[in-house]
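Hallway conversation turned thread

IA: we were arguing at lunch whether anyone had actually written out 4-vinyl reductase end to end. Turns out nobody had. So, for the record, here is the sequence (149 residues) and right after it the structure tokens. Reply here if something looks off.
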Amino acid sequence: MLHYSFEDMRQIDRSTLGNTVPLELFRTIRLIGLNQGLPLGGKGTTLTIGRKIGESLPVSSIEDLLHIFEELKIGIPRIVHSDERRINIAVEDCFCKGLPSLEEEKMVCDLEGAILEGAIGRILGRKVSVKEIKCNVTGHDHCEYEVKL
Ligand SMILES: [Zn+2]
């Protein structure tokens, strides 16, 4: 079976509407389609999708990854802590910024964390786990991921 690569995704020839779609469409796919449309909030599925996306990104270092994360307008990431066991990545301007909060404890950026997990796992050549520990939607002033190495 033939597969699309991330490089294929960059081949865009859309003369009138160009290479972007509105953020509300992305949010609708993420939150209404995946999160509300799948059983259990789409948890396992979203993780699988995110990891696969992360593994497909053409990056060979964490620096490359942070760069492409911003280029794809997922958010503006910065490393706020790094030691031999974990890396914390804060993300400003995440897609969720401005959304109303529904439940006090419910963070919504699981796909984005899974993208980081897939990409970092591939860069380091071993499994890592990523958890969202702060989210705009739960009242924090940015989203933040903890990467366990
Ligand atoms: Zn978030």
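OS: looked through it. The domain at 22-148 is CATH 3.30.1380.20 (Muramoyl-pentapeptide Carboxypeptidase; domain 2).
IA: good, adding that to the notes. The mean pLDDT is 95.
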